[in-house]
Design a protein that fits this description.
The chain is built from 17 helices and 19 strands. With about 475 residues, the protein is α/β, with parallel strands linked by helices. The strands form 4 sheets. It has a 10-stranded parallel beta sheet. Helix 2 runs parallel beside helix 4 and helix 10 packs parallel to helix 11. The chain starts with 9 loop residues before the first helix and ends with a strand. One of its GO terms (biological process) is SCF-dependent proteasomal ubiquitin-dependent protein catabolic process.
Length: about 475
């Protein structure tokens, strides 16, 4: 049976009670002054903060600030933040309610937080705020500077999004030499007309070349690898450990490895029909010791087998989106033999050859450490392939099955349950094409002792299943499409 919900810890209850009491005091203070006396309101909030600082340890303010959304505050979030922030706090992450706070508030208060190590300013950040951060928060190791977004009108009176972070803001934080993780906006298209401020590829290159310990650059919808490969600026070696590259070539990957010799996680998407082997050969010849490798639109070739034979012993995560529809069980066995330390495996294929022969004998000691398995998309024999993997490992915790054709998998799940192969699962995600009866859903919940996330497409009324979960106080999220 899925685990039962546990009561909140005494610490969590204390934190929630503290925030509730502080919220009540803040609201009383706020309602005691009209809007034109906001300065007096701030002074009284500051007095309350000083009183709390005399009683509570500084590190507790980090927790109170992070958990402040557990109790909704009905008033102006600035008053609450005035009380919950502390000069010695090391972590600050804004919440959604903070998005409407005027820029002046951040400019006035951020200079006090000189001990910050983590700062999240997503959707409130501007060049002016970054200037303050760059001058005062020199211990930062992680920062999110995704821009504040305003809505304006273009020349043709259409609504447009106006961003507030530009290369000038990036220059301001170039002296944050301890930064290891940076999240920001994607660069503008150089040929596109934009309203407002935007960062450029040149500005990003300048910034990362100034940050000696930067390990991870998080930019949504941005080909970071191609940005580094195509730049005319002489950069590197960088400390970046995670890179995605969507328009790669053999020479490009060779240049990328030279720029980022410390890479640990690499994601490559190669849409072209040519030069795939050249990319794999460059990775095999390099000194990289990748722990994660994601390959999309590749196929299991001799070059890939050679790469895994050389580098597979370092991999803990491997993903292959295969396009030739030719993946075989022998190839999967080869992956298991060359990658003995895999914890996560994702195989996406439409190969009709992915079946287990009748008298197949599984090699010993492959996929023993596998905890997370994703397999799709079509044509493979679900029963035989699942049985193969679950015979290899007793540690599987997350299983994601994708399929494009409607098929009932009741018998497969029941057999795996009877053999005890699903008992360690804590997350099971089944595609909407995979039909599972209500009775089998119940069996899964009753026999998977650690299951807490279960996504399945319901074709019947499951109100009695939900009632069973509620009555037994089970800690499981049962979802559908």
């Amino acid at each position: 049976m899925s685990p039962r919900k546990q009561p909140s810890s005494l610490f969590k209850l204390c934190v929630k009670t503290c925030i509730s009491l502080i919220n009540s005091a803040c609201y009383v203070i706020e309602k005691s002054y009209p809007e034109n006396q906001f300065g007096d309101c701030e002074r009284e909030a500051y007095a309350l903060k000083c009183h709390l600082m005399s009683m509570l340890p500084a590190r507790l303010f980090d927790v109170l600030c992070l958990e402040r959304t557990c109790c909704q505050y009905r008033g102006d979030p600035r008053i609450q933040l005035h009380v919950l922030t502390h000069p010695k706090m090391t972590v600050f992450r804004k919440c959604d309610l903070d998005n409407g706070i005027p820029q002046h508030f951040w400019i006035q208060n951020l200079p006090n937080f000189t001990r910050l190590v983590i700062l999240d300013l997503k959707f409130v950040c501007t060049d002016e705020i970054l200037q303050i951060v760059g001058s005062n928060c020199l211990l930062l190791e992680e920062i999110n500077i995704v821009s504040k977004v305003d809505i304006g009108k273009s020349l043709i009176n259409a609504s447009v999004l106006i961003r507030n972070v530009s290369d000038a803001g990036l220059y301001s934080i170039a002296n944050l030499k301890q930064l290891r993780i940076l999240a920001m906006d994607s660069p503008r298209n150089e040929r596109a007309n934009r309203i407002g401020r935007c960062v450029s590829q040149t500005g990003i290159i300048m910034l990362i070349s100034e940050l000696p310990y930067l390990e991870e650059l998080r930019i949504e919808s941005c080909d970071i690898g191609a940005t580094l490969i195509t730049t005319v600026i002489d950069i590197g070696p960088l400390s970046l450990k995670k890179i995605n590259c969507h328009f790669a070539s053999g020479d490009g990957i060779k240049k990328l490895i030279k720029i980022c010799p410390c890479l640990k996680e690499l994601s490559v998407t190669h849409l072209s029909a040519h030069n795939k082997d050249a990319i794999l050969e460059q990775l095999a010849l390099s000194d990289l010791r990748l722990t994660r490798l994601d390959l999309s639109f590749f196929f299991y070739s001799d070059s890939m087998q050679r790469l895994l034979a050389v580098k597979g012993c370092y991999l803990t995560h491997f993903s292959l989106w295969e396009i030739e529809h030719s993946l075989t069980l022998e190839a999967i066995v080869s992956i298991g033999e060359h990658c003995p330390n895999l914890v996560t495996l994702c195989l996406m294929t439409q190969s009709k050859s992915l079946v287990t022969p009748r008298y197949f004998r599984k090699p010993d000691k492959i996929f023993r450490h596998l905890r997370n398995l994703t397999i799709g998309n079509d044509n493979y024999n679900i029963h035989s392939i699942l049985t193969f993997f679950l015979d290899c490992t007793d540690n599987l915790q997350k299983l994601v099955l994708k399929y494009q054709t409607k098929i009932n998998i009741d018998d497969t799940l029941l057999q795996l349950i009877q053999k005890g192969k699903l008992k360690r699962l804590n997350c099971l995600w089944l595609d909407c094409t995979l039909e599972v009866s209500k009775e089998v859903v119940k069996q899964v919940i009753q026999h998977c002792e650690h299951l807490q996330m279960f996504t399945v497409d319901f074709t019947e009324d499951i109100s009695d299943v939900q009632k069973y979960i509620c009555e037994n106080n089970l800690d499981i999220k049962l979802g559908s499409y």
